[in-house]
Each structure stands twice: as structure tokens, then as C-alpha cells.
Amino acid sequence: MKIINCEQGSADWYFARLGIPTASCFDQIVTPAKGQLSKSSIKYAYRLICERLLKSPTETIEGQRWMERGQELEPLAVRQYQFVQEVETYPVGFITTDDGSIGASPDRLVKGKAICLEIKCPAPHTHLAYLLDGRGDAYRPQVQGQLYVAELERADFYSFHPRMPQCLVQTHRDEPYIKLLSAALDAFNEQLLDLTERARRLGVFQAYERIETPAEREHADELRQELENRILENGMN
Q1: Where are the domains of the chain?
Q2: Do 102 and 149 contact (CB within 8 A), yes or no?
Q3: Helix, strand or coil for residue 89?
Q4: What 8-state DSSP symbol labels residue 93?
Q5: Is 140 helix (H, G, I), strand (E, B) or coil?
Q6: How many CB atoms are closer than 10 A to CB 25?
Q7: Is the CATH number 3.90.320.10 carried by domain 2-230?
Q8: Who contacts 177 (Cβ-Cβ below 8 Å, separation ≥6)?
Q9: Distance between CA 166 and CA 159 in Å, rounded?
Q10: Alpha carbon of 91 to those of 16, 103, 232: distances in Å?
């Protein structure tokens, strides 16, 4: 296991994850119930190949906005979790396996324990759904993937809302499922490598000189569009 120290959501964080299958997207690689390679994983593979060849993240601004919204309430959620569980936690950037082939970004790690923590500060109806129905099987690849990549024993999911009861879901390692997940991820990475080499043989891909976050990229697009509009207006006058 390797830990890359960087702030989640920063340009360094996006650079560390570039072109690497991450636990948050493992549900796009394997079937949640059986942990087998999914036929639809090819779509995710194409995204990662573009990241590798163009040196640009494919995440959208919407995803980063939800991350920023959660960060506003996260300190309160963390303090409450630490108080109730009687533990200390600390933030982590990006974690990969020793060979760097897959990664995960849990929000925090619990000091002195093999536990990762994922904090959510969602809309009230989403939080209520967590309270009544839990997280569901769709999150199984992500959770077990985090435990696999970070070599941990338990993942704590903590959904926080300042006006509602809090939701804590604790998930332990499922070794049989992790074995299936590992095999599926190996097969996916072999496919990813083959497709990447095939793409390289097509011609030149013009990579970006620096990594931009989705927010920076959107701002640049807005400035570019504004400049183009001004040029058009001046041409018409």
C-alpha cells in the first residue's frame, strides 16, 4: 500500500488518480452482487484511457460541487463521529496498491486502528434513505475496494445532518468477495492496458501541459466563451 499525501479535490489529487481505476468507480467495473467483471466496464475503460493519453481528468464540475458542499459540514460530522466513537481521525489523500494499479480515497483514517471513514452530508431525503434503508448493495464494490486497496479491516460510513439522527454503517472485510473483486480488477487492468496501446497506435494525442480541476476547467471554458462572444460582437459592429 502507498499513501500519496494531497488534498482531495486539488490538482495534485486529480493528478495522482489520473487514469487509475478507483474504488468509487469499482461498481462500473464489477457486478455489485457477485464481484464479477461487468460487460459495461468498457465505458469506464474508455474514460481512463482518455485521462492517460490527454492528461486530463474526466470528472465533471457537478461531482466537485457536491464534494465542496459536503466539506462545509464535514468538520461538524467528524467531531461528532470522533466523540461518539471515542477515536481520533485524520484526512488522507490518495491510496494505491503497491504496484499503483488501483486506488481509493477514503475521507479519513482512524488513528491507531485499521478503519477508514467516509463522511456524507447529503440532502435531508438522501440522509433519511440511509437511515431507513442503509446504503444498498450498489456500494459493495466501493466499500470492499477501499478495504482491499488500503489494507484495512473495517469501513465506517457516517451520514450527517444537523437536524436529524445520524447514520453509522460499519462494514467489515469480506474476504471471499475481495478475492473475486481482485480477480475482476486484474482482468480489467489487462484489458485497459491492451486498449491503451491500441489507442496509442492510432496517432498523436495532444496531452495537456498541466492538470486542471473540473472547476478550473469550467472557469477557463467560460472565459474562452466570453472572449469568443466579444470577438463576434466586435466583428458585427
Answers
A1: 2-230
A2: yes
A3: strand
A4: -
A5: helix
A6: 16
A7: yes
A8: 35, 140, 144
A9: 6
A10: 16, 16, 48
Question: Could you give the angle at the alpha carbon of 162 between the alpha carbons of 110 and 132, nearest 5°?
Answer: 80
Instruction: Look up residue 22 and give its three cell numbers.
Output: 478507483
- Cβ neighbors of 192 (< 8 A, separation 6 or more) are 21, 45, 48, 49
Query: Distance between CA atoms of 223 and 217, rounded to whole angstroms?
Result: 10
Which residue from 135, 124, 198 is spatially nearest to 161, judged by alpha carbons?
124
With CA atoms as reference, report the closest residue to 213 among 71, 5, 12: 12
The CA distance from 180 to 26, in Å, is 12
Asked if 141 and 25 touch (Cβ cutoff 8 Å), the reply is no
What pTM value is reported for the model?
0.84
Q: For 188-225, how does the pLDDT look when each residue is reduced to its tens digit (9 = 90+)? A: 999 999 999 999 999 988 887 777 776 666 655 555 55
Stated length of the chain: 237
